TrEMBL record:
The lineage of its organism: Bacteria, Bacillati, Actinomycetota, Actinomycetes, Pseudonocardiales. This is Class I SAM-dependent methyltransferase. One of its GO terms (molecular function) is methyltransferase activity. SUPFAM superfamilies: S-adenosyl-L-methionine-dependent methyltransferases. PANTHER family: METHYLTRANSFERASE, S-ADENOSYL-L-METHIONINE-DEPENDENT METHYLTRANSFERASE. InterPro entries: Methyltransf_25 (IPR041698), SAM-dependent_MTases_sf (IPR029063). Gene3D superfamilies: Vaccinia Virus protein VP39. It holds the Pfam family Methyltransf_25. Residues 51-150 form the Methyltransferase domain. One of its GO terms (biological process) is methylation. Keywords: Methyltransferase, Transferase.
Amino acid sequence: MDRTRRGGTDWAGWLRRWDAQQEGYVDRREARFSAMLDVAARLLPASFVALDLACGPGSMSQRLLARFPEARVLAVDIDPVMLEVGRGALGSGGGRLRWIEADLASSEWLSLLGGARVDAAFSSTALHWLEPAALTRLYRDLSRVLPPGGLFLNGDHLPFGPELPTFAGLSERALAEQWSDSEFAARGIETAEQWWEAFAADPAAAPLLAKRKARFAGKRRPETRLDLDAHVAALRDAGFREAGTIWQELSNRVLLAVR
Ligand SMILES: C[S@@+](CC[C@H](N)C(=O)[O-])C[C@H]1O[C@@H](n2cnc3c(N)ncnc32)[C@H](O)[C@@H]1O
């Protein structure tokens, strides 16, 4: 039986559908991924070990493995649903992909690495889920795990700071429009809520959703996002020697930090 259809569930289909709805939230998502991969191609050796932080169902991991045949990826996420979709769709990536269930808001993920060497960390559309104190701790932990010269690449909406009110307003208005239900409908793209509703009807969903509910108990998304300057300052405090934007469309950016 096709592994990606295990148990009657089309896991690869759920991953494709995930990517399609994420494109509604992140303009030029594929170009953003490519910008991150291009940096890795220029700055890392052919064989490297990467973390995919808050990997979801593995969109970043999948692209890393496809572009770098000698790379290995450790994909970390708190959500048992996301991890199961990823495992079902991508499996172990031919022995090069390991899935790790951990909460990045604590340092538990470090102990689950089992002393693995890590050369770079990637993250896409995810770290805004962490409160500032948790993000600061994550950056410190990353700085401990990465060797000198190790890379951190984060693709996310990283807002403009208060010193650029016109830029911030422009970007916020563009996002409010892009993320409205009417805009999703006009573009024929499913929203994240619609993806979750559809997944809930899959025969495999019920036990996974129960585990998910328990894992997220008491958690909520922070109300505000740290601005770019706060990310850069936190990374430098954590021991990264360089940090800055290498790709951008308004607040949609790729931040590169070098340990
Ligand atoms: C919008 S999704 C992005 C997933 C994927 N990186 C992508 O680009 O498609 C955000 C991800 O962050 C994960 N996440 C949120 N809080 C987390 C935490 N405290 N620890 C680990 N993962 C977390 C969620 O489970 C989800 O998979």
